[in-house]
Amino acid sequence: MSSRKIVKVGDPVLRQQAKPVTVINKKIKRLLDDMAETMYQARGVGLAAPQVGVSKRIIVVDVGEGLWELINPEIIFREGEEVDLEGCLSIPGVTGEVMRASRVRVRGLNRNGQQQVITAEGFGARAFQHEIDHLDGILFIDKALRIIKQE
Hints:
This protein has helices at 26-41, 122-135, 140-143, and strands at residues 46-48, 58-61, 68-79, 82-87, 94-100, 103-109, 115-121, 144-149. By secondary structure, it is of the alpha+beta class. The longest helix has 16 residues, at 26-41.
């Protein structure tokens, strides 16, 4: 495992539609390991592969309930709405108020190719939506109702 460089807003990879993973091999598993290490080292709660310069549909999320690794994740159910603050490791010094579903169900593959279905609420739901947006080239600043630049 090794920490990777987090790309910042302005890098074209953050605006691309990430490509689906067709084969889960050692390279993909190493990417998952590196992404988790990078996220923890940066004190983040989620990271998408495009944020480390890799245009693949892979995310890692840990909001304090343990690490979730998802390959080709998709939101299959959303419910409710809530506005809360978000930040992003690729957009340092900026937060924004973003409307998100308050509850989601996400489906994707784990590192062994087994399908996982995760139901998340509140902060966890927000983290999954934020990371999956990255896979479609969408940043939280695109959805923010209000942007707050930190001093």
